[in-house]
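Friendly challenge for the regulars: who can give me the structure tokens for this chain first? No prize, just bragging rights.
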Amino acid sequence: MDPDEKPEDRQVFCSGCQQIFSESLVHVIPYFNSSVNGYVTTYRCEQCWIPALEETRARLASTQDEAEIASAGTFFQRHGVHIHEFMRGDPASVVQKILLRMIDLLRSEGIRISIGRDHELDEKSSAALKKL
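First reply, four minutes later:
Bragging rights claimed.
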């Protein structure tokens, strides 16, 4: 076991390198998914999280798409980081600057988003997993 791992950690799949890591070694970050045309939650290991976060920052900095900016705001809100300016409907350009600061805080580890608690699978999801 890696010395930084905690024995009670959950195991998490890194979306970048597609390896399994102990939860304490994984970063939760926003990442743009073109299939859903918005920012989704992604889990990245120590090797993968900085490059992925830099991609996210570059994309967010270069967009003028209000829906994409709102999607990034929604990502943070889903994870309990409430941005007042986003919630009250300030202009996208104002919210964009704050979101870029949030990305910088993630990178500096000034904030760290947790995965959250486990949820019981519903019957449909449980049945689908049994088929695998």
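The chain has one domain: 11-109. The chain has a mean pLDDT of 90. Your move, everyone else.
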